[in-house]
Amino acid sequence: MIDESNTVKKYMPKIFFQSIFIALLVLAGNSQAETPVVDADELQSTEQHQRATQIINHILKSYHYKLTELDDALSTEIFDNYLESLDPNRSYFTQADIDRFGKYRTRFDDMLREQRLEPVYEIFKVYRQRVKERIEFAKPLFDKEYDFTTDARYQYDRRESPWAADQAELDELWQKRVKNDILLLLIADKPADNISDTLTERYERIATSTFQLNADDVFQTFINAYTTAIEPHTAYFSPRVSENFDISM
After folding, report:
1. For residues 187 and 185, what is the distance between their CA atoms, to the nearest angstrom?
2. Given a cut of 60, is residue 170 above it in pLDDT?
3. Distance in angstroms (rounded) separating the CA atoms of residues 230 and 77
4. pTM for the full model?
5. DSSP string over 154-209
6. Is the Cα dihedral 148, 142, 130, 81 positive or negative?
7. Strand order in the sheet with 15-16
8. Residue 217 pLDDT class (50, 70, 90 cuts)
9. How far apart are CA 38 and CA 215, in angstroms?
């Protein structure tokens, strides 16, 4: 068991409740100049994550100015925040995915108390797969010929939209997205012969950056879904992000 009082004292200088940042350096790791692609087997909760979760629970319960009960209602907010963090524009998950994850909606509070975060990584692995599927679907569309004289609408901001009902609806959304991207490049006087290469590089960068996220990054995303459910200006920094924050300050 962790001596929470001593641990909290140790990390107290890193806690700013006026500016409301939580930066706990309880995870080992160093920044890398070139971030490698992360294997799916590496995306799992570690002992360090469990220790960090226990400490964060204690701090939020004992020291945060806004005392909030960790219950099913808060779990629902954490659940929604986490999905929004992964897919804010609702461009990757379908409603079937959301329904599949629904069994965790009121269980995140229990998982946080018991430091059992496996479902967090399960959801993220599905997200990675959906990103890969969308990029692979989009790339053949870059070389198609499009008629830009027809009357069509593309909803750029889907944050308040329903999740796509199924893959067919998601395919339609991405067809419109690619067509819109091509049109914007043409308007910007991008040579037509270079558009496919430009979009290929842009979309592959989306997949690459997603597959470079490691277990610590996923943990940070989830814990921030937790802290912002309590208060929107409370955040957790992973070691890498905390180091960059300290340097910038």
Report:
1. 5
2. yes
3. 9
4. 0.82
5. --S--TTSPPBSSHHHHHHHHHHHHHHHHHHHHHTT--HHHHHHHHHHHHHHHHHH
6. negative
7. 15-16, 21-22, 235-236
8. very high
9. 9
